[in-house]
Each structure stands twice: as C-alpha cells, then as structure tokens.
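Morning!

As promised:
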Amino acid sequence: MMTTSSARLSKAARIATLLAASAVFVYLVSAFLLAAFRSQGDVVAGGIIDGLSFQNLVYNWQQIVGFGSGVFLIWLQNSLIVALFAAAVAVFAAVSGGYALARLRFAGRKSILFATLLTMVIPNTVLVIPIFLGVAAVGMVGKLLPVIIIMAFFPFGVYLAFIHFSSAMPKELVEAARVDGCSELGIFARIALPISKQPIALVFFFAFVADWTNYFLPLVLLPSTKSTTVPVGLQQMISQSQLYDPTAAAGLNVELYIPQLVLAALVQAIPVLIVFLSVQRYLVRGVTVGAVKG
Amino acid sequence: MTNKLSASVAGGTESPLLRRRSGFAHRRSESMGAYTLLLPFLLLLLLAGLIPAAYALWTSLVNRTGSFAGIDNYVNVVTDFRFTSTFLNVFATMVLYVPLIVIIAVVFALLIHASSRRLSASVRFIFYLPGAFAGIANFVLWLYILDPTVSPVRWIWSVLGYDSLGEVAQGSNVPMILSLILLFQGVGSWMLIVYGALNTIPEELIEAAELDGANAFQRAWLIVLPILKPWIAYLSIMNIAYALQLFLEPTLLGNATNGKISPEWTPNQLSFTFAYGVGDLGAAAAMSIILLVLTLGIGLFIVTRTDLFGDAE
C-alpha cells in the first residue's frame, strides 16, 4: 500500500517535471517564431501573440532584403554553395575512407583511425586562426574555395561511415568478392556503395548543419560584406541594428528591430529544417552514434 | 564455384612458398585499394589540419622580419594583460555551464527513460527543437529573451531590477548568460546521447535488481549511474573543450551591448584580435598553439582514457 502510493507520487512528480521543463522550451521557441509575425511596436508592448499578421511578416521580409540592397540573398547563395559542396565532398571522403578503415587491412590503419577520432573530438574552432594564416599566405582570403575545402574535412563523418561498415557489412562478403576476382575499388563500388544510404544521409546531414551554421571560419576567411555567408551577415545586421547601435544605424535605409532579426534568423534555419526532414528516417536509427558530436 | 576458388587461393596443394607469395600480392593490392579510398580524406586532413597546425607552429616561432624568435611570441602572449583574464572568464563559464548541462542532460534522460513511449518522444522532440537554431539564430533568440524592453519574460528582468540589455548583460552576469545560451541549444542532443546509452542497458539487469528489492533511487544510483559513467565523463570533457573555444556568443553579446563586454573576453577572441585587430601574426599563432595543445590534451584524454571508442581502436 505504502509502495504503490509512493510510486504514484514519484510518477506524478516525474511527469510534472517533464511537462514544466517542456513548457519553458515551448514558450520560448514559440515566442521567438511568433515575433516574426509582429511589429517592433507589438513586441515592445509585450505578450507573445498581440499583433500577429501576415502584413507584418511581409513588411519584415522587405526590410531584410532592403538591407544593403539585397545582400541577404547573396549571403544565402554563398552559404548554399559553401555548405552543399563541402557536405558533398565530406560524404565522398567519409564513405570511401570509412569503408577502407572498417574492412581493409593495411599498414597505418590504426594510426589513421586514431587521428580520425582525435580530430573528431577537437572543436573545429581551434584551427581557425592557423588556417587563416595559411590561407592568407597563399592569398586566398575572400574566396569560397578554401572555405569549402576546410569545411569538407569532417572526421566525424569518417567515424560514422566506419561504424556503419563495421556493423552492416560482413568481412566474409569482401573476402568472397575478392576470391571472385573483384578488384578492391570494384568491391567498394559494387558492394559497399549500394548499402551506403544510411551513412550518406547521416554524414550529409551532420556536415551540412555544421557547415551551414559555422560562424568563425567564414568570419575570418570571408571578411568582406559581399562575399560572406548568412551567419556572418546576420551578425552585421545585428551590429547595425537601430536597437544596438543608434549612431551607426542613422544611415540605415531599413528598420532592423527584433521582428526583422528574428525573421532573418528563421530564414537561416529553413535549409537546416529541410535537410532534417528529408533525412529524418535515417536519423531515427543512427541518432545514438550520430549525436556524438553534439 | 566460390568455394573451389577460395580453396585454391587458401593454398590447397600449392607449395608454402607460392602460398606466401600470393598472400603477399593480395595484401599489397588490398593496401593499395585502401590508400586510394582514403586519399580524399587524408588530403583534407593534410590541408585542413596538419598544414595549418605546422604553419602556425612555424609562425609562432619567428618574428615579424621572419627570423627565428624562439619563445618570444609565447612570452608576449602570456604576459599580455588580457591573457590570464580570458582563461579566467572561460573558467568561470565552465564552472557554471558544465555541471548544469551534465545534471540536466542526465536527469532528464533518466526521466524520459522511465516514461511512456509517447511522453518520452514528445519531450525528446521539444528539447531538441532549439538545436535547429544552432549558433547565430539561437543568439538572436536570446537577444529577444535578454532585452528587458522586448523580452517575452520581462517580468524576470523587472524582478531583478534590470531595465536594459546592458544591465542584464553586465560583467558578473556574462558567465551565467553564456551558460544559458549554450545550454538551451545543446542540452537536447546531449540528453539524446545519454538516453541512447541508457537504452543499451539490458532490461534483465534492472529487473534482477528490482526482484532483489532495490527501489527506483537505488537502481538509478547503483546500477544505471556506473554504466553511464564513461558517457558522463565524455559529456563533461567535450563541453569543457567547447567552452574553452567560445567565440561567437561573447563577440555578439559585446556587439549588442555596445562594448559592455570586452572584445577579448575569451582566448579565441584574443587570438582573433592579435590576427585581425593588430596584425601580430606571431602572437596570434602562439595563442592558437597554446589552445591547440590544451584541446589536443583534452582530446587525447577522451580517446585513450574514457573507454568510449574501445571497439573502434
């Protein structure tokens, strides 16, 4: 009797804690989403739903594209080029490299695996300044290509593919194909690749999100306003906003207050959302390994 | 067919010498295949990792005229009046942030693990939601929350007596604000990782403990936590490494508060100022090497000591 009532009490406490914490998240995220449909006046007046309208959304969007005569769209384009190419190269390097590490024997395998793990757990910001020094030395600052190459280095992807082939592709399959006279590259192309949907989707997702949201690297390698990506551009919008710098904002031709900044941030999140939805079914299975990088 | 072929390759009636030679040839073609497949990744490792690191090391050891300077740049960096404070600042942030994210991620993973499938799935989704606004979008969200003139939670700021963003983001509050910003965007995915680890615990183990009369608290404390220990270590160390690298959030907070927060608040920001602000590449390189050595140490510890990549190695 005692135990059932105390168990019931602890169950109620558990559910109450989960609901309360979820309510905090839901409240803050929805306040954020709704702010894009309001005017600065509504936001200052308070609450989270007063003044919602599509006219406000349209007005806020016009302010964003009016900033710097449409430079926001150029940032979007740069971000797309950089993130798509970098993620594609990362997938290519990860799937072939991960397969070799998982299923082939060769001198140096352990050291390469060790280097992969080590570089995977090191935050990528640590090399940004050294990379800047190198890129500046060859005169490539302001070009998209070095950014793509640096972002394409994605050891976590190699680790994901390595785990995939270690568990999903039996050693015997490789042996049998070899015995049948298949070349090493042929085995990879004809047997490993066709069963690689899962790692391709996962690596593409994690690489794309990491590249799309990367701020420090483009800040350093793409310093000019016209050539940079959305995260760095958003920072320029924030620092020129009337809210935070009244003097610099005096010459601004558009309004950049909370609703406009929120909308710009939401537009920036859309590609992440699209990629997330399109690889979702692969994520469900791979999320435990997949989430390791955080 | 396959069987016959493999029997002949494996030796059969061939002489030991021949067998060794064919094994040799086979292993060589296997190695060649492996190196070919690894080539793209190794090239990227070279271009994005080893060359920049080596170049930074070289730059840190020469002076502006290009002649060998020994440890001069390092001495300049370490004796810079901002050097110690940048590390104290990230340390003050770690002391708040790391215990917060570890405790919340573990406690909530345990709570959803004990809950029905539907409740657990909804909470996982809700906690993961802010992860979609990683980085700058999450920062804009926090600008909205932190600014008392627009905040959807302005009653908190009025209770605390703050009227402007500058007052909210005053010096002594910065570690707490940064912790909240990082926590909000990261806790969902860390909770998922711990939850994934919880799912690997065999149910029989828990049931056996239950039969032996262990209550829910004892089961969590005596069985589940020891199994989670390497994950908790991983979570803590990764987040320490992450906090050490802080750049975006303090930079933007400084921007938005009109310089209330020093632009050299963290080590990475100081390194950025050396490189961009004053063009002292030697000092920037020296600062980067110091940070690289620290994070390499943390990384080596994770890979060799936490037991998490045991199978992989």
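The longest helix of chain A spans residues 2-35.

Hope this helps with the figure draft.
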